[in-house]
Structures are given as C-alpha cells and as structure tokens.
Amino acid sequence: MKFATYRMGDAAKVGLVDAEGERLFDLDAAARRAGAPSAPFASMLSLVDADEVGLDLARSLVDRRGGEADLWRDLEQVEFLAPLPEPRQMRDAMSFALHIRQSSRGARAVQALRATGVEAFKAVMREPLEDLPAVYRELPIYYITNRLTVVGTGAAVRWPRYSQVMDYELEIAIVTRRTRANIPKQEAGAHIFGYTIFNDFSARDRQAAEMQGRLGPAKGKSFDGSNALGPWIVTPDELGDPQTLNVEVRVNGETRARGDTREMLFSFEEILAYASQDETIHAGEVFGSGTVGNCCGLEIGRFLESGDAIELIVDRIGALRNTVLRSD
C-alpha cells in the first residue's frame, strides 16, 4: 500500500494511493461512512501507531468501499504534504561508499572554492579519490538531523541567505513502527512501517566551513525546508527488496545522475539494529540511507541555481519534486 498525507481545506488528511499511482482514497471519510473507527487515520503518526490494526482497517475499507467513486480523488487534484510532516526523530546514515569517497573530495573542492575560487575548485575535483575510511565498513554510523524542517513534494524550498552553494541529495528513507530498544537484526524488518524518498538539501559552503571543526553539519543541513520527504510512504510488502531500486536525479528535466541501491554498505535492518543498542527507537522515526552514489551535486561538481526544479525518481516509490528559490 501507499499512504499519503494531503491537504483538504485547512486540514491534513491521510489517504491511500492506488496501485497505478493515479488516484487517492479518502480513508477517514470511508471509515466514517462504514461506521468503522477513524482514529487511525487522524494523521500519519496515528496510522503508524495503530500498526497492523490500522493497516488491516485500511485494506478492509478499500475492499468494502473502493467502488464508491466519491471517495476517490485524482492525484492531479491533490495538494500533497510531507507523508510524515513531523517525525518523532530523524537520523541520516552514510551507506554508499561511492558517495562517501566522492563527497569527501567535493567538500575539499568547496573549501578551495571559498578560499581561492573556481579554478581551485576544478583542480581539486580532478584529484583521485581517497580510500574509504574503515569505520564506514565497520559501523553504520549516522547523525541526528532536524525533524522540524520537513516539507513534502511540490514545496518550494527557500535558499538560506547565508549560503551561495545549494545542493540536493537523493536518499531512501524508512519510517519506523513499534517502539523498542535492542532490536535484533533478524527482527528489524518488522519495525519498518514503510519507505519514502528523501531529498537532504544542503548548503555546501556553510557545511564545508562547519565541518572543519569536526562537528556538524549544523546550518549546512538545518534550515526551513531542508528535509524533503515524499511523495508518499510505500509499505514493505508492496516495495519488495529496498536494495534493488534504480534511482534518477533530474534538474529542470535534465538527467544529472542515475544509480541504484544495490551497493549499500549496511541494510536498513542493520542500521536500525545498531541505532537501537541500549536506546529506544520510537514508532514514527525516520532513518535516511545516505546519498546514493553520484546523486548529489557535490560529487559531480554541479550545484543548484535559484528557480531550479529538482526531481528525485525511485523505482516502486515514485517521484519527489521540489524547487529552490533564493530568499532575497
């Protein structure tokens, strides 16, 4: 199943997207019409908390009421919000070796750009890649990012005034279910509610400056709209293996990168098990995979301009679309 959060009037509602990705089913209205509990559809967090009860109810409502045309809306008529507008926590890993190696070189190039100029940037980008630091193969490390800056597909992201170098990052993200600590790897799959696309917008010049202090990325990745999620959440039974997804980045309709998720250093189950060591992971958290190799401007030396339209496309999930606009 695919679950979306969308706007109807002044309210945010939860809907189910059909298999063809063409229509959306109003779960709350269907529940009320059927005399069934509507509380699981009050918000996406409510549905996550309802767990199997909520999922079974959603299936039942589509089976029983799916033939009623007035409960469906064409997607073109829907204003989508982030599928999980305010996660309970948000973490981002680094699971792709090519991205880690290329972004390390890219970060040095941005520092050279800040210090000397464009030619220095180009010179660094021609340097050979460094070896992958061993820690990335030993531990599924991550950082905690800002759960309060989430936007959805279609949102215009305001370029922070303190930055001149704006970038995108294509990632896959999971939403957790079932609150628990010390989750065994072999049981971690049962704690995944679903998958969505994550654009980890980044102010590269500020990030490069901050991370010289070996702490961050702070304002490099924390500004209004910096975490875009969407267009919806796909349940594991519908998605299948998340490490067999082909991905594509388009900017203004031009393909900037293609890649896939086959080279993840750690699976989502391994990341989740690691994070839960002596720490309770709550239902409704978001974990990012880290950027798929080649799928950010830092790796290829091409950044965003004000007004650019960014489209992140992932097999079996859909497309996350945003624009970036300068604030001044």
TrEMBL record:
Residues 131-324 form the Fumarylacetoacetase-like C-terminal domain. It comes from the Bacteria. Pfam families: FAA_hydrolase. InterPro entries: Fumarylacetoacetase-like_C (IPR011234), Fumarylacetoacetase_C_sf (IPR036663). GO terms for molecular function: catalytic activity. This is 2-keto-4-pentenoate hydratase/2-oxohepta-3-ene-1,7-dioic acid hydratase in catechol pathway.
